[in-house]
Amino acid sequence: MEVKTKTMEETAATKKIIDRRQFIKALGLGVASLGLAPGAMPGCLGASQPATAGRKGNPNIIVIMSDDMGFSDIGCYGGEIHTPNLDKLAAGGLRFTQFYNTARCCPTRAALLTGLYQHQAGIGHMTGDSGYDSYRGDLGGNCVTIAEALKQAGYGTYMVGKWHVTKHTAKDGPKDNWPLQRGFDKFYGTITGAGSFYDPTTLCRDNTYITPENDPEYKPEIFYYTDAISDNAAGFIKDHRQHSPDRPFFAYVAYTAAHWPMHALEKDIAKYKGKYGKGYEYYRLQRFERTKKMGLISKDWRLSPQAGDWDEVKNKEWEARCMEVYAAMVESMDRGIGRIVAELKRQGALDNTLILSLQDNGGCAEGMGRGSDVNDKWIGAIKDRTPMFPDELQPQIWPPMKTRDGRPVRGGPDVMPGPADTYIGYGRNWANVSNTPFREYKHWVHEGGISTPLIAHWPAGIKTRGKLCHQPGHLIDIMATCVDVAAAKYPAEYNGNKITPLEGRSLAPAFNNKLIEREAIYWEHEGNRAVRKGKWKLVSKHPGGWELYDMEADRTELNNLADANPQKVEELKALYEAWAERCGVQPWPVKKPKPQS
Ligand SMILES: [Ca+2]
């Protein structure tokens, strides 16, 4: 029997929503009456309807994030990869052209989940502890996650996929910073940052480590992590409807596609066979032209320098195969997103669900598994080649490791990527294609490292179809947006801890053709630094000096104006330094503090 009694939290949340509506009504300020004429704000084209038009109740919110993908990979951002489901969300929603992440997995997740810059949230670098509160490698007690904030407003909260914001991954270690202890009602996914798609290490349901073979709740014919994420996300949304039909939900779906290793099912790779034989430059030029034509970038910007010469690639079949598998990984994810959307449609909930889809950093130039000597180290290290027991956890993030049926995992240019016994990255030159038209990669804070698509789809809240928003935004805005549209409260105190004030700005005004007011956006990762204020960006690649770019004239960062405009350099540098001091950024490489005597 369905339990109809509302919890105290729900009742309080409902009261707050009613209070807020009555307040708005009393002021005669229906959000509609605040609407500007279309195009009134040059930053955001075409949105003409209020964010709350036609809404009944607060929306469900789904944040979908993928891993290690470039600005122009998906179809609706100029890519040749088949992503019909994301394209459909874009066609029915709003695409941001200048949305930013932090250039790396852990800091992006920390900033997204908390609405703070990553250093403020305790993840100044990755999950190592450098001895400072801003570099604990663990979410701090001074921040709340979106789940913790929305739970207070009566939301069901679910997480599926990659967590990667805690240093504690031991089976019996502390779990204070695992999803269930940070506000999520249910969790299916991985605690750490990478692994085999056929046997992900730290695979977990709620607080318990599991394997692809011993999970009674998910028994697919073939285990493939991307499918597992999609299916479990759709399952949580289905269960939520069944058990809590009167409450909205928040779901955070963090795919590991298309992070290395290049792992995809053969039937999906087959579709791309021979598709990348024309080499890097051909696809970069195609993407460059399409992104211009689609209005995602200015026609005046020049294309960033080409990495890699296809004519000089020795093993073209292998090199092309790396990108074929990458494309298959992205398409598998897109198909899974289609299954999540189908579940919302089945419930009649798509209309009042805000879906935000983005990427955690730019295309990845790391050379994982690409050396011709990797197998010398990998294969011989696997002495025990017996199959693993169903309950036996995969201990390895990367090789040396074995498959569940006991085969050593291999790499290098003699091994075609895709199957479970391979572990290979797609390399710098394809990452350069992924990041078209921008410079640099994951790790760096030039535009190629930090630029991500952001699709916002919410029929009841965003009435324009297929428009572009050119206002800059950053991950820290996701929490602010969630709190705003959910009529939740970002707390000043939580669990007895004082909470650092929210850094981000709600994106909801952009849904309504209004300006998102902010002073500046900041980046620091591994000594790579940047600040963006209006059209100006000051950026430095560690250990180099400052470069200054006019992002309206030159977002591909090819014309350094630092010498021509030293005054602007000084102004932005002062802003950056004040921010770095305020957020606890340490000089790179971070040196552990001296012990107190
Ligand atoms: Ca990543």
The profile of the biggest β sheet is:
11 strands, mixed
Shape: globular
Helix proportion: 25-40%
Low-confidence blocks of residues: 1-55
Query: Radius of gyration, Cα only, in angstroms?
Result: 23 Å
N-to-C CA distance: 63 Å
β content, as a range? 5-15%
Helix and strand composition category: alpha/beta
Bound molecules: calcium ion
List the quaternary state of the chains: single chain
Overall pLDDT score: 91
Number of helices: 14
Count of beta strands: 17
Short description:
With 597 residues, the protein is α/β, with parallel strands linked by helices. It contains 14 helices and 17 strands. Strands 1, 2, 3, 4, 5, 6, 7, 8, 9, 10 and 11 form an eleven-stranded mixed beta sheet that branches.
Written overview of the protein:
With 597 residues, this protein is of the alpha/beta class. 27% of the residues lie in helices and 14% in strands. The chain has 14 helices and 17 strands. The strands form three sheets. Strands 1, 2, 3, 4, 5, 6, 7, 8, 9, 10 and 11 form an eleven-stranded mixed beta sheet that branches. Strand 16 and strand 17 (546-550) form a beta hairpin. Helix 5 (225-243) packs parallel to helix 8 (316-347). 53% of the residues are buried. The structure holds calcium ion. The site of calcium ion (CA) has 6 residues, from loops.
